[in-house]
UniProtKB/TrEMBL annotation:
Tree of life domain: Bacteria
PANTHER family, A to Z: ISOCHORISMATASE-LIKE DOMAIN-CONTAINING PROTEIN, PEROXYUREIDOACRYLATE/UREIDOACRYLATE AMIDOHYDROLASE-RELATED
CDD domains cross-referenced by the UniProt entry: cysteine_hydrolases
A single MF term (Gene Ontology): hydrolase activity
Start and end residues of each Isochorismatase-like domain: 11-185
Stated name of the protein: Nicotinamidase-related amidase
Gene3D superfamilies for this protein: Isochorismatase-like
Length: 204
């Protein structure tokens, strides 16, 4: 099926309790950007896709360099972390369904092909991307989406990181070096242009 840039989905990356609460992976900005993420998610829950990052059961179960990563972060593996922390934060969890969830075990949501196949089946050509972290999982999502040919709108006030310098650098790189495929936009501007019933570019 051909993809149409008028058909869009909101792809929200890893807005989970694991990162919003006081854990070793806590991202302080998560609560700051949550209102913007929630506004768009509630404006079009049927067009919203949440991803969740799921650690392995143990470091020994992780492949390649991920094993060393989880030897460092052993306390975040499945045998130690509270499974409830893998859930989406409460305001977003309540939107599923109609919003849907794709789980992943690496930074990128594209690796196993399921998400891309789902979007292609829906004819989706444009992705509005929110969530965290800007310079890790969001960046991996954007770069993969570029390679797969999507039009990308990165929601400036809807992405978060634990590092201000690399957050800012990521926004600059995405909005500058990838300016043909990607643009950086405020969430309310996106809602006004795409998600309000009278101005939506597509009902699909």
């Amino acid at each position: 099926m051909d993809r149409d840039i008028r058909i869009w989905r909101h792809l929200c990356i890893d807005m989970q309790r694991l990162f919003a609460e006081e854990t070793p992976w806590h991202v302080g900005w998560a609560h700051r950007v949550l209102p913007a993420v929630e506004r768009l998610s509630r404006a079009a829950p049927e067009k919203t896709i949440f991803t969740r990052f799921l650690p392995p059961r143990s470091a020994s179960a992780a492949p390649g360099m991920w094993r060393q990563y989880y030897e460092k972060w052993w306390m975040m593996t499945g045998e130690h972390v509270d499974p409830a922390l893998l859930d989406l934060v409460a305001p977003l969890e309540s939107l599923t369904p109609p919003a849907i969830v794709f789980d992943k075990t690496v930074y990128s949501p594209w690796l196993d092909g399921r998400l891309h196949r789902h979007l292609v089946e829906q004819g989706v050509g444009t992705l509005a991307i929110s969530g965290g972290e800007t310079d890790v999982c969001v960046l991996a999502t954007v770069l993969g989406a570029v390679d797969l040919g999507y039009r990308i709108i990165l929601l400036k006030d809807g992405v978060c990181s634990g590092s201000d310098p690399t957050h800012d650098a990521s926004l600059a790189v995405i909005g500058g070096r990838f300016s043909v495929q990607a643009e950086v936009m405020e969430t309310d501007d996106f809602i006004d242009r795409f998600a309000r019933p009278l101005t939506s570019l597509s009902t699909s």
